[in-house]
Amino acid sequence: MPKQLTLMAVCPHPDDECTSAGAALALYGAQGVRTVVVTCTNGELGDGAGGVKPGAEGHDERSVVETRLRELADACRILGVTHSERLGYRDSGMSEWDFKTHADAFCNVPVEQSTARLVELMQKYEPDVVIADADNSGYDHPDHVRAHDIAVAAVKQSGIPSKLYFPAFGSRMFESMATALVESGIELPDDFAMDDAGRALMDAVDARITTTIDATAHAEQVRNALLAHVSQIAESWFGQVPLPAFTAAFGRGSYIRAFDTTGAPTPETDLFAGLRD
Q1: Greater model confidence, 179 or 39
Q2: pLDDT digit string, tens, across residues 152-200
Q3: How many alpha carbons lie under 13 Å from residue 198 in its C-beta half-sphere?
Q4: Phi (first) and psi of residue 5, to 5 degrees
Q5: Which of 68, 101, 104, 145 could cysteine-pair with 14, CB 3.0–4.6 Å?
Q6: 145-50-222-39 Cα dihedral, nearest 10 degrees
Q7: Residue 39: strand pairing partners
Q8: How many CA atoms lie within 13 A of 254 on its CB side?
Q9: Angle CA(238)–CA(149)–CA(168) in degrees, nearest 5?
Q10: Count of alpha carbons within 13 Å of 28, Cβ hemisphere only?
Q11: How far apart, in whole angstroms, are the C-alpha atoms of residue 118 and residue 146?
């Protein structure tokens, strides 16, 4: 009997499984692929009840963790994720915040230690394909940087995955969502303002795309999974994006193939190209 194909997504916080790998998890889960989400931190520094921010009066980290882990479980259920694993590290917070000085923050845990734990999970599940954060996304959140580092190291050390992909958030996705929002009669949020440097960075991401998967049939499923993280998006325009705009931006997942042992030619339309019988 042939080995079941397995996809593993390595995610910094609860909710990143939706934004970075949601399309792939939903699409391949529906195809019978075993899907594994590894969440590196508990998300202590997310928004608290009522949108209260870390460090503000009323922000209770313990309560935030309980809420976010419950939302993670709901989102994984909606996406049809087969297995959800947590490394349980403390959220480091944004690069400009003071919270990352905590000794137990994910970014301060020795990289060898956190890599070893991820290697153990790769040995347990034997993923064929791994999705992890890119190294040059322009988002310098310490947890995203560290999640990238340990994923790349674990792929190499374990020798198990055949392919490693980075989500590609480039100009094409950005413009697709902007166009869809305007067509839906929604005023573009300030987040859509971009200088020349930001545009150049996104264009560079587009130039590296090797793989695009069509998960438009699962766009509503992915959107519902993201909406399950209500504590984090209730105050954000992102939670109000109508389905057509969401589908335009996230229905097709674009990825950069960073590691491959199959020799499958690019461009690809399947993360498992070269691995199927």
Answers
A1: 39
A2: 999 999 999 999 999 998 888 888 878 877 887 778 777 777 787 878 8
A3: 8
A4: -65, 145
A5: 68
A6: 40
A7: 11, 86
A8: 18
A9: 40
A10: 30
A11: 12
181: phi > 0 → left, psi -120 to 50 → alpha, else beta; which? alpha
| DSSP 8-state assignment for residue 186 | P
Residue 154: exposure state from Cβ atoms within 10 A (0-12, 13-18, ≥19)? buried
- Fill in the DSSP letter of residue 2: P
H/E element holding 149? helix 142-158
Q: Extract the tokens encoding 244.
A: 């057509």
Q: How far apart are CA 78 and CA 207, in angstroms?
A: 32
Model-level pTM greater than 0.85? yes
CA distances from 47 to 119, 144, 197 (A): 31, 18, 29
Per-residue pLDDT reduced to its tens digit, 10-20: 999 999 999 99
Spatial distance between the Cα atoms of 8 and 81, rounded to a whole number of angstroms: 10
Beta-bridge partner residues of 214: 252
